[in-house]
Amino acid sequence: MRKHTISVLVENQFGVLAKVAGMFSARGYNIESLSVAETLDPTISRMTIVTRGDDQIIEQITKHLNKLVPVIKVSDLTGTAHIDREMALIKVEAKEKNRAEILRIAEIFRGKILDVSPTSFVIEVTGDDEKIAAFIALLKPLGIKEVGRSGKVAMGRGSKTTD
Amino acid sequence: MRKHTISVLVENQFGVLAKVAGMFSARGYNIESLSVAETLDPTISRMTIVTRGDDQIIEQITKHLNKLVPVIKVSDLTGTAHIDREMALIKVEAKEKNRAEILRIAEIFRGKILDVSPTSFVIEVTGDDEKIAAFIALLKPLGIKEVGRSGKVAMGRGSKTTD
Predict the structure, then answer these.
(1) What is d(CA B97, CA B94) in angstroms, rounded to the nearest whole number?
(2) pTM of the model
(3) Which fold would CATH assign to domain A2-80?
(4) Residue A18: which of B21, B37, B161 has the nearest Cβ?
(5) A108 CB-near residues (< 8 Å, 6+ apart)
(6) Residue A95 in contact with partner chain B when CB distance is under 8 A
(7) Burial of B99 (0-12, 13-18, 19+ CB in 10 A)
(8) DSSP string, A120-142
């Protein structure tokens, strides 16, 4: 049950997310993460969906997606050269004795400090699964209060496009 | 019709996204962007939904979301002190004469170069709507080939949490 990252271009019309999410749900396919937002052309949105399944299941998902009316193009990026990144916002307790260490960890991970209060930091970090997991694992013993993750955004390497 | 950023904690169970997206669609509320991914507790996911509406509509959306079974908590972050950020991946044409300028623009926006080919760059940038729009506007005349955006991730400022 390999993880697959599927990029879906859809017409930015009313109810398109409900159609796509409904197809996954009705057919019993799970969605691990999903992000959707406008592309450069505001009439077209791109969804990045992370799901798990063997080759047969992924083929079925791709087929069903292609049949949905507002879907323009489906690309399974898994197995092709691609970038696969996520943004996480992490609110961490900032006790006096931990503040320097938190800032050091953030620096190593090229994190950005977005908010500082007397008792907390909010740090933004971007990267692949492993990097974000490692960052969270390092901060966890210091006291994580809240985590918000964007879900994956994926793009093929090189000059080719999935548009 | 103000933009609202709504943070929704849901049980990470099968079909939850279809339920939420279906509620928006069935009741005629639009979703401008959405991101969903696990929180620190893998049984709980956080959705960040950007939608538009007057106060009455947003109140209705919040009510309907609260009624959905897998929904744990709904917070409308609009009007409270919060961070509201997005990640964008931008593939831009890298003609010889433009390469230095693209790198300069990326540096100003604290962008990260994720991929380089003889004819293209992929640049990651994070920020609020305005920053991402300004970055895209600067790169557009140089030739943008592809844009992938994560949708918003939002978090209250200070040490309070929405969990």
Answers:
(1) 8
(2) 0.91
(3) Alpha-Beta Plaits (3.30.70)
(4) B21
(5) none
(6) no
(7) middle
(8) EEEEEEEE-HHHHHHHHHHHHHH
Same fold? B2-80, B83-153: yes
User: Is pLDDT of A163 > 80?
Assistant: no
pLDDT top residue among A147 and B2 = A147
Domain range summary for chain B, segments of one domain joined by +? 2-80, 83-153
Token couple for A6: 């599927």
Question: Do A148 and B155 count as a contact with CB atoms less than 8 A apart?
Answer: yes
Give the count of beta carbons closer than 10 Å to the beta carbon of residue B53: 16
Cβ(A144)–Cβ(A92) below 8 Å: yes
Give the A window 68-87 contacts with B, CB below 8 Å.
Answer: 83, 85-87
pLDDT band at A125; cut points 50, 70, 90: very high
The predicted complex's ipTM stands at 0.91
Those residues with Cβ within 8 angstroms of residue A113's Cβ, 6 or more apart along the chain or in another chain: A103, A106, A121, A122, A123
Interface test with A, best of B32, B95, B121, B155 (most A CBs within 10 A): B155
Rounded distance, CA A87 to CA A152, Å? 8
Q: What is the second-level CATH architecture of the domain A83-153?
A: 2-Layer Sandwich (3.30)
Q: List, for residues A86-123, the tens digit of each pLDDT value.
A: 999 999 999 999 999 999 999 999 999 999 999 999 99
